[in-house]
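Bug report (template v2)

What were you trying to do?
Predict the complex of my protein with fe (ii) ion.

What happened?
Run completed; filing so the output is reviewed.

Input:
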Amino acid sequence: MSTLSILHLTDTHLLAKGLHSSVVDPGEALLRALRSLVPVDALDLLVISGDISDDGSLESYRRVQELASDYAAHRGAQVLYAMGNHDNRPGFWAVLGNGHPGALSEPDGGQLPVYGSSRIGGFRLLTLDTSIPGRTHGFLDEGQLDWLAEELSSPAEAGTLLVLHHPPIEPVTPLHDGIELQNPEDLMEVLRGSDVRLILSGHYHHALGDSLILGDQQIPVLVAPGVVNVNDVLAPEGHERALRTSGAQLVTLFAAPASAVAARVRHLPLQLTEVESVFDFSPEEVAEISGRIAAQPGELEVDLGSDV
Ligand SMILES: [Fe+2]
């Protein structure tokens, strides 16, 4: 496997009952998002990078698992889940196990942090638990950082994908200032010299791309917009505004040898909103209009208004 094709969703915030922010049915939002994503066919991995549940209920985890497994199974893809600050460790363990493909549920997981490692092709998948029960900000404890260092001590054939809910990069919107990952430098220390080629995160509820620069090494960090809502980064200064819409990311991670300092990463942001079409040309109409445009090379402006 020379590439890993990933669909990245996050912040589904499912509830056993009721509405999110008093207006959004999270189950409906997820269902609508997955319906919009039906055309995505070539897929190896569906990642849901945390805040899977809003109330920690078993029903909410079961519903996400049901929808995500069904979507992935139709595409021959695996599913990978990570813990978010709204998640509940006992509920997560009981339904999703450690969140890795093929993981068994662990009803006795209790308040143990949820993290793990698995393989898909030559790629290694790692998840960390940045949540602190009852708190909103993120933190990586020493136990997980030690485990991560041990795990990364030998490289994977094609490189490693790391998923953690709180991004190890600075927030953009005011409400997230203070509830970000509190110790990104501890993570960066462990990642230095490792084969981690890409980090996927959620939490900020809007798309954001950045990189960790560790000497010669560069690790892209991609934050996906929320499924339950999307934060408006263009809200007036000081405002935190969420929009009733959903987003996702399609990501291709290319295999890279252990000696590489970076891997190629392609990233396609997806806006999943049901909106009215302004126009919707059929392939035949496109060919016909293209033909007419080609036949008028001198025309800089072509009025398409009469074609629809
Ligand atoms: Fe969230």
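What did the reviewer find?
Helices lie at 26-36, 58-73, 89-96, 142-151, 184-191, 283-294. Confidence is low (pLDDT under 50) at residues 299-308.
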